[in-house]
Amino acid sequence: MSASPLFDKINADLITAMKSKDEAATSALRMLKSAIKYKEVDLKREIKDEEVVDVLSKQAKQRKESIEGFEKGGRADMAAKEKAELALIEKYLPASLSDEELVQLVEEAIKSTGAAGPKDMGKVMGALTPKIKGRADMGKVSSLVKGKLG
Length: 150
What we know:
Arc Repressor Mutant, subunit A
């Protein structure tokens, strides 16, 4: 057992995929395991669930960017492969926040930090990030905060 039940779940799913000879899932899960192991080596300790979620979020973001690039380049086959990997990664991520939940969290963060204008954006983002990490696109959150403070 590692310090991360989520990492243990990914390992177990990898073994299941290998036994069932599901090559696509095996390949994607190996890639995830590798990315998590690299993070563990960087940290020089066992990885925690929050850090696994960070790695998974980065991997999901990479897939989204790749899908966009492949679709622009007319590579539907590669886009489909990336979409399948993205769907697999999203299985392990916490449920995404709805737009209404996100707006509510942004408004609460603005009130709790006493933010008055755009110069206070850093304070608001600092308060928000731990609550929404891995559950919302940070670019979207940033533009929402800018809109509320502007």
